[in-house]
Description:
Number of domains: 3
Number of strands: 15
Order of helices and strands: HHHEEHEHEEEEHEEEEHEHEEEH
Number of helices: 9
Amino acid sequence: MPVRPTTRLSRADLADLNAFRTVERLRSFTQAAVELGITTSALSHAVRNLEARLGVRLLNRTSRTVAPTDAGTTLARRLNIGFAEISEALDELNAFRERPVGRIRLNVLKDGARLVVAPLLPRFLKRYPDVQVDITIDDRMVDIVGEGFDAGIRYGGTIPEDFVAVKLGTDIKWVAVASPRYLYHHQAPVLPKDLLSHSCIQIRTGQGTIYKWEFRKGDEYHAIDVPGQVCVGDTVMGIELALADVGITYCPEKRVERYLRSGELRVVLSEWSPIEPAMYLYYPGYRTVPQGLRELCDVFREGMLEDPVAHSDEP
């Protein structure tokens, strides 16, 4: 029986194979190019060269979609196993270093970016100069493993099961706030149900639903489907509209402390403000933890506990 010759993989081969598996996972040349840090045309060229060398079409492309062929699906599955082994081997090698080195990819909701990452990441970068951090800010609840992230930051209560979750700081107080000018022209609500006669700035969640504002006082609990002329998917926009006298918005108290101190915003229904779960950093527990991620958790935790009212309250 003839012996099949061994194929030697060059650096370019490995790069092209990784480029292909990234496109296959994201089903998008544009998104894959962003993740890989190259142009879309360079990525397309790399995949076509790979197909030409292998003599097999790996991806079916149309003007709107990208989907793997049967051969592409088979190759991607095997490559994912192989690249995972390579990644774990490098992580084990990094354990022999005096300090972590590598790249961490985070998916962070916008409030997490403002309250945790922006104020505390500079401390981490200074302490661990050999670690690179790639941050995607997204309020959608994404599959961090499927989309290639090492970890995510979300509010507690929204963390998927079977993930390791690290609490960052204390639980969070949520408040309804409005400008003094708005409250001058509208009678301030006394009970949560009074919001039904107000102009509220509705909030669209990362799951695409309109959020019901929650209020607690003792054993009483109310979830109000507030009315409003405008709906936003961003806390920053909600605060800016409240400052512009559009209506009442709902957000973590930490996000508006500066405006509460200056008097530009006032809390309404203060006795009903609920305390909700803190921010959590979460990651899959069944994989080797990337170099630097544990250190990042430690820096974020210590920073949030040092100053539980947050390091920055600017929108």
